[in-house]
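Issue 218. Parser rejects a valid record. Input:
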Amino acid sequence: MKILNLILLFGCSTLLYASCQTPKTSDKPIVQVLWSQADSSHNNYRIPALLVTPQHTLLAFAEGREGGDSGDIDILLRRSTDQGRSWEEQIVVWDDGPNTCGNPARLLTKPADVFTCS
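Output the parser choked on:
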């Protein structure tokens, strides 16, 4: 019985030690810049939002602004199907001319329809 307890204790200690180790390089988060001022489509990007679908598709939304907090503000979308390693080109989801389309709020319904509310 003592040997079984020692084996169990050693196994639990090994699992605890392994779980506290620094993650492997492949386990580190992927950092991607999706919008920047170097992008010539809009002057500023604000209010980012992210949605993960049941199919593990990432949908990243942001406001594309021409000026300040009001005026010509569009809602933009970029999509990733490989867990954020690469992203499709941005599309304008909502453009109301010189009016404000802001604060993208996402809503996912079954069977996975995506709505963007502003």
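Fixed in the parser; the record now loads. Confidence is low (pLDDT under 50) at residues 1-23.
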